[in-house]
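Sequence only, no structure available. Ideas?
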Amino acid sequence: MSSFAQSHTRTLFKTACCAPSRPAPDTRRRFIQLAALGAGASLLGVSRAETKPAGVAIEALLLSCMDYRLMDNIEQYMPGRNLRDQYDHIALAGASLGALTTRYPAWNKTFWQHLDIAVQLHRVRRVIVMDHRDCGAYKVILGAAHAKTPETERAAHARQLATLKTRIHQHAPALQVETLLMGVDGRVETVG
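Reply:
I predicted one. C-alpha cells follow.
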C-alpha cells in the first residue's frame, strides 16, 4: 500500500475509533476505496521497483526455468545477492535450453526480444542464466539419457549454458553473463 493510502487509512481508523459508534458514510466509503486501491495494487504486483524512473539502470536480466518448484528459491537467492528490485526476470521452460532449442523457435525469439528490451529500457549490465537440475524441459527436448547421473546432467546443462553465453556475447558484447545451476533444494553452483 502506498504511503498516501497508509496515512489516510490511519486517519480513517483514528476517525472510526474515536468517532461515534458508527462512522459517517463518507468516511467508510473513503476507507473502502483506499483499501480497494491497496488490494488492487498488490494484485497487480505494484512494488517499490515500479517507482524507478524509466531508463534507470538495473543490474541484470535473469533467465530461469518456469518450474514452479524453484520460484521460492529464486525469490530467496536473488535478494541474497543484493539484487532485490535490481533485475528483470524471464522464465522459459529449460532456461538456457529454452532460449536455444530449435524445437520451439518462438522461445528463441522471445528470449532475444526480452533481452533487447531489458537493455533498451533498463540498461541491464549482465545476464544471469539459471538452469536447474531435474528439469522436465531437458527431459522432453534432450531425452532422459542426459540425466543418467548427476555428472551427465551437469555436463548437459554446462553445454547449453556455454552455448547461450557465447551467443549473448555475440549479440551484445558489453553484457556480462553468469551461468548457474540450481538444485531442486535451492543450492546454486556456478557452471562454466
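The first strand starts at residue 60 and ends at 64.
Hope that gets you unstuck.
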